[in-house]
Amino acid sequence: MQEEGRDAPRIKSFIRRIGRMTTGQKQALDTLWERYCLDHELVYDFAVLFGRSAPVILEIGFGNGESLATTAEQNPDKDYIGIEVHKPGVGNLLAQLERKGITNVRVFYYDAIEVLEKCIPGQSLSGIHLFFPDPWHKRKHHKRRIVRPDFVHLIAQKLISGGYFHAATDWQHYAQHILKVLTAAEQFSNQSSSQDYCPRPDYRPLTKFEQRGLRLGHGVWDLIFTRR
């Protein structure tokens, strides 16, 4: 029975998996954490954090970090915040940032929803990326999908006017779900000319996994909505 006056526990959209960590990933975490990783208990002023005023893009669930590192390297005029709960992936990204000399990325190793709620100031983000989130394909797990009306309301608070939310998925049913949720949100406008899906923008790199899927004939759906 729920105790009076206490909120119901939040349904997580992820399962934290530690996984096997390479020597390089562990070394990167040990030596580079203080340089790139952020405290999930603090609210950040991005102009102070990066030492300049520039558009800030948030990526939720960056996996092994290869796409985020590539995007940041190719867009030095923008700053990037990455969020991931898979520690080897964080270590992999830190190693790439250091090796390539990329200075416009910072990282949270924490729950994305809590980071958005606690650490990201209102109307501070120019864009939010959600690339290939866990589709939770079983019907009984659909409630765990991160894109829900409460999530859309939250990101609307964090985006500047005209800022965008870009989701990509290789699960058609999840793409349809995201489209339905965002279309119903009055704060957002679909950037698709046909009011459904968009071509992949140049700023979203093709991952090896995605390239393999495309060769096998699998579909990928990009959805881009802007904050009214």
Describe the structure.
This protein is α/β, with parallel strands linked by helices and 228 residues long. It has one domain (34-227): 3-Layer(aba) Sandwich (Rossmann fold), CATH 3.40.50.150. The chain is 35% helix and 18% strand. It is built from 8 helices and 7 strands; from the N terminus they run ααβαβαβαβαβαβαβ. The protein has helices spanning 23-36, 46-50, 66-74, 87-100, 112-118, 149-158, 172-183, 208-215, and strands at residues 56-60, 79-83, 105-108, 125-131, 159-169, 188-190, 221-227. It has a 7-stranded mixed β-sheet, sandwiched between helices. α6 links the parallel β4 and β5 (159-169). α1 packs across α4 (87-100) and α3 runs parallel beside α4. The chain is globular and about 45 Å long. The relative contact order is 0.14. Mean pLDDT is 90; it is low at 1-8.
Brief sketch in words of this structure:
Substrate binds at residues 138, 170, 207-210. With 228 residues, the chain is α/β, with parallel strands linked by helices. It is built from 8 helices and 7 strands; from the N terminus they run ααβαβαβαβαβαβαβ.
